[in-house]
Structures are given as C-alpha cells and as structure tokens.
Amino acid sequence: MALIIPVRGFTPVIGKDCFLAENSTIVGDVVMGDHCSVWFNTVIRGDVNSIKIGNNVNIQDGSVLHTLYQKSTIEIGNHVSIGHNVTIHGSKIHDYALIGMGAVVMDDAVVGEGALVAAGSVVLSKTIIGPNELWGGAPAKFIKMVEPEKAREMNVKIAHNYLQYSRWYTDPDNPDNLK
User: Fold this and answer.
1) What's the pTM?
2) Phi and psi (nearest 5°) for 149?
3) What are phi and psi of 7, to 5 degrees?
C-alpha cells in the first residue's frame, strides 16, 4: 500500500477507483480525483502547500510534485498524463495536457489545455504555454501548434491505458487483464 502521510493537519484525499503503487508517497494537502494512477517511486508532497489533481490523471514512475511554501500550488486538470521522472513544482496543468518523460515544469508556469511538453524539457517559472501548443527544449520554447482533436484523443487514450494497466495490479484474476 502507498505511504500516505498526514502533515500540518492535512490528510491526503484520494478519489474512488485510484491506483497507488505500493512505494508511492502522498503527503499532506493533496486532493486527487477519481480513476487516477500514481506509479512506482512517485512522490506527491503537499506538505508546504496544496496539490489538486483532477480525474483520470496518470502520474508515472519516479515523478515528483511539490510546491513553494505559501507561494505556489499545483493544479492538475482532467485526463492529464505526466510521464516518467517528471518534476512539477508549483504549476498549473490544464485538461488533456501531456508532460513528457523527464520534463521539469517550474513554479507559476501554466500548461494550457491539450498542450504537450516534450520529453526532457525545462519549462521555466512563469512560462505560459497556450492551449494545444507543443513546447520543447531547455529552456522550453514554442515548437508548433497541435490539432486539438488529436491532442485530446491521445491523452484520453493514454489515461485509459494507464487505468487498464492499474487493473493488472488491483484485479489480477480478471480475464480481461490477460489481453
């Protein structure tokens, strides 16, 4: 079972039908929606400020979510995919966005609806990424626009896939899991 730690009077609130890997850690002022998955070695630290996570969000292995004390919060929308080893520090990620593997998104940055942050990118503090934009690099820069329907379709598919993967751990005897 995941390590869930209350701190400063805040106990994490986890929505229904969520998968929390047994070595993930969720601390303090964290509110997570329904049908989310938090994968191995992920740390979600709401000890110094709040972290709000929407529905159908997957936070993949080794990611770290944290904030600045009394200065920044994290807000993550619905159907968001956060790749392996991502650091999100005090930023806002809108619905249907994808944060690629190894990316860093810093304080007060905003990632718009349907936007994509390429793997390995560094999104500096206070950067605003508009809806359906692809950004990449270190520091991250605008690359091109993404078709809204394709971005939404891709992120719904990834979110659905991660929900399916989580069933392999929570319901291993289900014959549908053998596909």
Assistant:
1) 0.94
2) -65, -40
3) -150, 145
